[in-house]
Amino acid sequence: MTSTLGGLSTDSPARELVCRGCGARFPLAAQHACFECFGPLEIGYDLDALKRVTRERIAAGPDSIWRYAPLLPVGHDPATRVTLNPGWTPLVRADALAQAIGLRAPLWVKDDSANPTHSFKDRVVSVALTAARALGFTRFACASTGNLANSVAAHSARAGVPSMVFIPADLEPGKILTTAVYGGDVVAVDGSYDDVNRLCSELTEADEFEQTAFVNVNVRPFYAEGSRTLGFEVAEQLGWRLPAQVVIPMASGELLTKIDKAFRELVETGLVAEAPWRVFGAQSAGCNPIATALHADTDQIVPVKPTGIAKSLNIGDPAAGLYALEAVRRTGGWMDYADDDEIRDAIRLLARTTGVFAETAGGVTVAVLRKLVASGHLDPDAETVVFNTGEGLKTIDAVAHLVGPTFRVRPSLRAAREAGLFRESL
Ligand SMILES: Cc1ncc(COP(=O)(O)O)c(C=O)c1O
Ligand SMILES: [Zn+2]
To answer: Are residues 339 and 361 in the same domain?
Structure first.
């Protein structure tokens, strides 16, 4: 029998919360800020328990993030999970894209639009809400730029738990509809994501919200760990080795730091052989506070008021920005940003060359990949993985005016010939 620790099962390798700022340690609980320095908290693991995990054990697991259950901060009993079983998404070899942008080494697209609610957020939500239920929360919530709201609403519906998700009122209609359909409360806030996040932080302090788990506020340390599965998966799909370069979209910067953390853990546990990797971060020109700090060679991340079409990445005051800078500097990577036209071009380029239709965040990432090759920051002769974290069908307005039917014809052979359909195919 497994015992529980404040509701959390002790068959998980998670042992404590550790402050990312000052290193102070706290018991596992629904706590996200350090009592000493207010720094963000992260899960601390029993390294020996992680080291006992073998490739064989992982391979024997399900085709979802739960194959990595022994590396996650929740119990192993499937019956306790709040999940849509996301993960094990395709790693697509992208030779035509590589050629189009001047990469000579293998290029892969990790296509995380192939998740139940079509973004990587299903990974973080499955881990956060499984922890939240174990901790005794009876309602699920989040502050979201869109994809997180989709995922929290859908997970809550599956689990039969009430939900309340908070979004900026001016999100894409596709993102609002694909959240509201799951039936929980959707709170559209007249303000930016940063306003939404501030409101949610205040709500966690209210008595009426005591039983509410905000996945990216009061249970954030658990939420953040779910992103590591993207790093684990890429390594496993490459045959248990690390790619030399990864290009990752950034909003809060959390995803980037956790893919880097996953690579470090894989080396520490001996699951992959030690090899250098370089981490590259992608933002939009309308919201680029982390990349701007890197370019200015400073740790001062100056919050911005986001603009532009990449709304899912529009976090003007990024919580993990400092740690994203650290990961990029430590690994010898770089960051850049792309404007709206470059984003739209990149969405179409990715679609034409790989058959993957990305949302604007994927457009940002592919556009930045292209710029990094052109500027020489990315080595064209080193294997590269670019992350597509969301689905194009949720942000069709981004390209709606740029694509459409090639021909319009009356239904007759003659009309087809006259319209030019018989031209030689290339
Ligand atoms: C599609 C997509 N990609 C990437 C991100 C970035 O996530 P993070 O806040 O962990 O940097 C988000 C965040 O909302 C997102 O929706
Ligand atoms: Zn601290």
So the answer is: yes
